[in-house]
Design goal:
Blueprint: H1 2-17, E1 21-32, E2 41-48, E3 51-56, E4 61-68, E5 73-76, E6 78-83, H2 88-91, H3 96-99, E7 103-108, H4 118-126, H5 140-150, E8 155-158, E9 160-161, H6 162-169, H7 179-195, E10 199-203, H8 214-226, E11 230-234, H9 242-256, E12 259-262, H10 276-288, E13 293-297, E14 302-306, H11 320-326, H12 330-340, H13 350-353, E15 360-364, H14 378-385, H15 389-400, E16 405-409, H16 413-420, E17 425-427, H17 448-463, H18 469-476, H19 478-483, E18 500-503, E19 524-529, E20 532-536, E21 539-540
Parallel strand pairs: 1-4, 1-5, 6-7, 7-8, 9-10, 10-11, 11-12, 12-13, 13-17
Antiparallel strand pairs: 1-2, 2-3, 5-18, 14-16, 15-16, 18-19, 19-20, 20-21
């Protein structure tokens, strides 16, 4: 009897050892690049709900959703450190141009969608071009919650703009804030941080951000630092005053203790290309001294912004409406023609940095009558119209009543190659994530919107061999996640959220060009966001599992 009982217990034990475990999703036989920069390894990944449940040998498991990753790389979802998808995701929450490159988190910066007062809400509504939407929020947190509830396929995060809170309190005039006004700006930053902002952000070459002096920015940076947030900045100059602008950024970090990050690291204008090596030395010296400074970049040698960046900020004192009126004044126009053709030292002349009108490509208008110029250079349009390039630029802004979207040819490809391989540099498209359909066909785009991240793997890793694939994956995922202080993201690890990208490193390729920018990248076969498959065999599933990812200062109960 005892022998029979022993054999029965042994049989039950053996049966339980062979018991099949069931998971929601299993990714099989992939080459795991976990985000830490180490050598890849072969393994399976099991997912339950939104979480990585196990990494290892799962031959005795089964799942409701099997993904064959044999011969493919499996990596943490990529992070777009500078996304301008704030409006495109309102129109189309699928985030196709970025998701098809493996991007699972869009981080909004340079400005922000809140806080907004009534005047700013009206300006936002009046300034809408192709995408129309009601402004139903007042604070940044309200916007982010609204967008998440609307339904998005990617995760989203946002910084709060110092220029946004400045405009809320002061307006768009070139004035210093009073002590009371500065306190009001700090309170708005406190609220945004407690709502989940990642930190503060700005673009100091554009008004009204340009009007803020260092002594205004330092106390605002201290507010972000109190909550563990970052300070991300399109620094005050990328050209003739590049070193001075970098010194300002480092000084802000020293005085406030905040982690600072340079937006779209570059040296604009041929006269400034030589500065990269010195810039790298300055940053790396600061890092050795314990100053938390990093950067992000897009992987192209042309920038994109408004045609209004060809004019001095003083011309834009008071906002776009004032600029629009000034550009119709004959005396001012004559001064602006001269200003556009000079390498200014007190502002960033993107027109001059691009080598003039032949280096300015027009990609976005509001008026249908002007869309015929999309894809043409300013020089070509000036020739068509029989006007000088400078007069044509002013005419177009007046006629369209917008800043007009353009691409500037201003950077050096060799510098781009060097920057990509810097271990403290992550990647941001500085563009919206969209789709080659619907309202998105009404404007052009910079190819970085469709190829920025695929280009890291296809061009700079595989073709140019500027860095290893494991280093690229770390810079695309773990590095930005660490800088942002994200919890359980940026790394393939048991217990982390299942933001995962699966791709064939031999075939990943960007296809977008300046002539035909709206072309999806290829080679990314599958993407999961919070455990849900949003890209399957290279096609979008229609799923919208994206979430508002909140920063380190988030508090569940927001005081009014």
């Amino acid at each position: 009897m005892k022998l029979f009982l022993f054999l029965f217990i042994l049989l039950i034990s053996l049966h339980s050892c062979k018991r099949t475990v069931t998971y929601d999703t299993v990714i099989r036989d992939g080459l795991i690049y976990d985000g830490n920069g180490g050598e890849p390894y072969q393994a399976d990944i099991a997912i339950d709900a939104d979480t990585i449940a196990f990494i290892g040998d799962l031959k005795n498991s089964r799942s409701n959703n099997e993904i064959d990753a044999e011969g493919k790389a499996v990596a943490p979802g990529f992070i777009n450190m500078l996304s301008h998808s704030e409006e495109s995701l309102i129109q189309d929450g699928r985030s196709q141009s970025d998701l098809r490159q493996g991007v699972t988190l869009e981080v909004f910066g340079e400005g922000s969608m809140g806080p907004l007062n009534e005047k700013m809400k009206k300006q936002t509504t009046d300034g809408q071009r192709d995408i129309k939407y009601p402004v139903l929020w007042n604070t940044l947190g309200e916007y982010m919650n609204w967008l998440e509830k609307k339904g998005i396929s990617c995760n989203i995060a946002s910084f709060v703009g110092t220029g946004t809170v400045r405009q809320y309190v002061i307006g768009e005039d070139d004035v210093m804030p009073t002590a009371i006004q500065l306190d009001s700006m700090k309170l708005l930053i406190d609220q945004a941080m407690e709502e989940g902002a990642m930190g503060i952000t700005n673009a100091l070459i554009y008004p009204p951000d340009f009007f803020a002096k260092t002594e205004e920015l330092v106390p605002l940076a201290r507010e972000a630092a109190k909550y563990g947030g970052m300070y991300t900045s399109h620094i005050r100059s990328e050209g003739s005053k590049l070193f001075e602008a970098l010194a300002e950024l480092i000084s802000i970090s020293k005085q406030s203790g905040v982690h600072v990050e340079i937006y779209h690291l570059k040296e604009a204008g041929k006269d400034n290309w030589w500065k990269l090596d010195s810039l790298i030395k300055i940053v790396e010296r600061a890092r050795k001294e314990g100053i938390p400074i990093t950067a992000n970049m897009y992987t192209y040698n042309r920038s994109a912004t408004g045609l209004t960046a060809s004019f001095p900020p003083a011309l834009q004192d008071g906002g776009f409406d004032k600029l629009w009126k000034r550009l119709q004044n004959k005396k001012i126009r004559e001064r602006m023609k001269k200003a556009m053709d000079n390498n200014a030292t007190d502002w960033e002349n993107t027109y001059y940095q691009a080598g003039g009108s032949s280096g300015v490509l027009l990609i976005g208008f509001k008026k249908d009558s002007l869309r015929k110029y999309i894809g043409k250079t300013l020089a070509e349009v000036a020739s068509i119209r029989g006007r000088s390039a400078e007069e044509t630029a002013m005419d177009l802004i007046v006629e369209d009543s917008t800043r007009i979207e353009v691409v500037y040819s201003s950077m050096d490809e060799n510098n781009v190659r060097k920057e990509v391989a810097l271990p403290w540099v992550s990647f941001g498209s500085d563009e919206a994530s969209s789709a080659p359909e619907g309202v998105f066909l009404l404007s052009g785009a910079h190819p970085r919107a469709y190829g920025n991240f695929a280009r890291v793997i296809g061009k700079f890793v595989r073709d140019d061999k500027m860095l290893s694939l494991q280093q690229a994956v770390e810079q695309l995922s773990k590095l930005p996640a660490t800088n942002l202080k994200l919890q359980k993201r940026g790394e393939l690890k048991q217990g982390n959220y299942a933001d995962i990208v699966i791709f064939d490193s031999k075939t990943v390729q960007d296809h977008a060009t300046y002539e035909k920018p709206l072309q999806y990248a290829t080679g990314i076969s599958d993407v999961l966001v919070n455990g849900v498959q949003v890209i399957k065999n290279g096609e979008h599933t229609g799923a919208t599992p994206g979430r508002f990812i909140r920063g380190p200062g988030f508090k569940k109960a927001i005081p009014k």
